UniProtKB/TrEMBL annotation:
GO terms for molecular function: DNA (cytosine-5-)-methyltransferase activity. Its EC number is 2.1.1.37. Keywords: Methyltransferase, Restriction system, S-adenosyl-L-methionine, Transferase. Belongs to the class I-like SAM-binding methyltransferase superfamily. C5-methyltransferase family. SUPFAM superfamilies: S-adenosyl-L-methionine-dependent methyltransferases. InterPro entries: C5-Methyltransferase, C5_MeTfrase, SAM-dependent_MTases_sf. GO terms for biological process: methylation. This is DNA (cytosine-5-)-methyltransferase. PANTHER family: CYTOSINE-SPECIFIC METHYLTRANSFERASE, DNA (CYTOSINE-5)-METHYLTRANSFERASE 1. It is an enzyme of class 2 (transferase). It comes from Streptomyces hokutonensis.
Length: 423
C-alpha cells in the first residue's frame, strides 16, 4: 500500500488516483475526512501521533507525509521555529528507537510543532522490515533543515535522498507556492522532477522542449486569454452558508459610493446581457442592481473590459497582490473564513474604468481557491466556508504531487491536462 500520513482533504490522494493507484490516508480533521469520503478516498480517521505504526509493517511500498504547517507557516505565530531544537531531538531519538515525545512535547511552545517528527516514528518501525521502498515529504520552506536531518538518517539506512525547495508554479500550478520537499528511494536515485514551466516561456532547443510560461489565475479559472474575470458572487454568508460576497464593510462602501453620486444603480427590473452556459449566445437576464455581480455582468457583456482584477492574499498592508494574468501567491487562510479577495482597477487602455466607481472587493470562493491549488472545479469540499478554506489552504497541490509521485511509481506517465483546472 501507499500510506499517507496527515492526508488532509486529498491532494496526494487525488494525484495518485490520476496516476492509477490509491493510498490509505490517516487524518484527524472530521471535515477533511468527509471531503475524502466524498472524493472516494480511503481514510482512517485517527491522530497520527497516537496510531500504532507497527500495524502497517510488511505492507507499505510508499510513505507520504505532509505534517501540519500551522506551527511553521508565515501565516501563523511560527512557534515551530522556537520549538525546532525539541523537534530535532525527537527525530534523533525516534530514529534510534527511543520515544521521548511526551517529555519534549511538554517543553514545546506549540504542541503541533512535534508532529513534524512523527514520520520518523513510522519510518523506524517500517525500516525493520526493509520498508518503505520510497518516501515523499512536504512542508513549508522553514522546515528544510529538519528534512536534511531526516535525509542523514535515511542515507544511513540505504536510501538515496534529495531535499530542496520547489515552486509549484514551475510545475503548472497557478500559484507560486514554495515548499520544502524530501524525496527518498531504496531502488532509484532520488532527484527532483524536471520543471515544466517558467516565469518566462523558453524556446525549444536541441536538448528538448522549452518550458511553458507559468499558468495564470485567468487561465486556470477559465477566464480566457485576458485577465478580466467575472468573480463568483454568492449570497448567504452565515457560518454554515456560502462564501460572503464582500469583505466586512464593503457593502457599506458600495452604499456610500452610491449615496455620494459616484455610482448610479440601474433599475432593479432592467435587463443585462448574460452568456448561457455551454454556448456563446447572449441572452437577457434580470439582475439585482446594487450588487457587484451587476457591475461584473455588465463588464462581461461588453467587448471592451473596463476593469482588471487582482487577487489580494489577505487584509494586511503587506499582502501579496497578483493580477489575474499571473499565478496567485501562496494561498493560506487564517482564523477568519477567508481573507483572499478580488480587487478591481481600471483595465489598460480604459479611462478610469469607464463611468462609475470600481466594483468593491469580492471574496474568492472555495471552488476558485481549490482550482488555484490545481484541484478539479467539482472537487467535493465539505463543511462550512471556514472549514473548506482551511482544507484548501493546507492541501498539497495535486498537480505538484503528481510530478513528485510519478517517478516513484516506475515513472508512471501522466498528462498534466488530466488535472482539469477550468470548469
Amino acid at each position: 500500500m501507499v500510506l499517507d500520513l496527515f492526508a488532509g482533504p486529498g491532494g496526494w490522494s487525488h494525484a495518485l488516483s490520476v496516476l492509477g493507484t490509491r493510498d490509505i490516508g490517516l487524518e484527524w480533521d472530521a471535515w477533511a475526512c468527509q471531503t475524502r469520503a466524498r472524493a472516494g478516498q480511503l481514510t482512517i480517521r485517527t491522530d497520527v501521533a497516537a496510531y500504532p505504526a507497527w500495524i502497517f509493517s510488511g505492507r507499505v511500498r510508499g510513505l507520504i507525509a505532509s505534517p501540519p504547517c500551522q506551527a511553521w507557516s508565515m501565516a501563523g505565530k511560527r512557534l515551530g521555529l522556537v520549538d525546532q531544537p525539541y523537534v530535532h531531538q525527537a527525530v534523533a531519538d525516534l530514529a534510534s528507537g527511543r520515544d521521548t515525545r511526551e517529555r519534549l512535547l511538554a517543553a514545546c511552545a506549540d504542541p503541533r510543532s512535534l508532529l513534524a517528527a512523527e514520520p520518523m516514528r513510522y519510518l523506524h518501525a517500517l525500516n525493520t522490515v526493509g520498508e518503505p521502498e520510497w518516501l515523499v515529504m512536504e512542508e513549508v520552506p522553514d522546515v528544510l533543515p529538519l528534512w536534511r536531518q531526516y535525509a542523514a538518517v535515511l542515507r544511513g539506512w540505504g536510501f538515496s535522498v534529495w531535499t530542496g525547495i520547489l515552486n509549484a508554479a514551475d510545475f503548472g500550478v497557478p500559484q507560486t507556492r514554495r515548499r520544502a520537499i524530501l524525496l527518498a528511494s531504496r531502488v532509484r536515485t532520488a532527484q527532483p522532477p524536471v520543471p515544466t514551466h517558467a516565469q518566462l516561456a523558453e524556446p525549444d532547443s536541441l536538448f528538448g522542449p522549452g518550458r511553458r510560461r507559468w499558468v495564470s489565475m485567468a487561465q486556470a479559472l477559465g477566464w480566457g486569454a485576458t485577465d478580466r474575470p467575472v468573480p463568483t458572487v454568492c449570497a448567504g454568508g452565515g457560518p454554515g452558508g456560502g462564501p460572503e460576497p464582500f469583505p466586512s464593510g464593503s457593502r457599506k462602501a458600495l452604499v456610500d459610493a452610491r449615496d455620494r453620486g459616484t455610482w448610479t444603480p440601474r433599475d432593479a427590473d432592467s435587463l443585462l446581457p448574460s452568456r448561457t452556459a455551454g454556448s456563446g449566445r447572449i441572452v437577457p437576464r434580470a439582475v439585482r442592481a446594487t450588487s457587484a455581480e451587476d457591475i461584473a455582468a455588465a463588464d462581461s457583456a461588453t467587448g471592451e473590459p473596463r476593469w482588471s482584477w487582482s487577487l489580494r492574499s489577505n487584509n494586511q498592508t503587506n499582502a501579496t497582490v497578483r493580477r489575474a494574468s499571473e499565478p496567485a501567491g501562496t494561498l493560506f487562510f487564517g482564523h477568519r473564513a477567508n481573507e483572499c479577495t478580488w480587487v478591481a482597477e481600471p483595465s489598460d487602455g480604459a479611462e478610469d474604468g469607464g463611468p462609475g466607481t470600481a466594483p468593491p472587493p469580492i471574496r474568492i470562493t472555495a471552488r476558485e481557491a481549490g482550482m488555484l491549488q490545481s484541484f478539479p472545479a467539482d472537487y467535493p469540499w465539505q463543511g462550512n466556508k471556514g472549514q473548506q478554506f482551511s482544507q484548501i489552504g493546507n492541501a498539497v497541490p495535486p498537480l505538484l504531487a503528481a510530478h513528485l509521485l510519478a517517478p516513484q511509481l516506475d515513472d508512471r506517465p501522466f498528462n498534466p491536462d488530466d488535472f482539469t483546472l477550468a470548469a
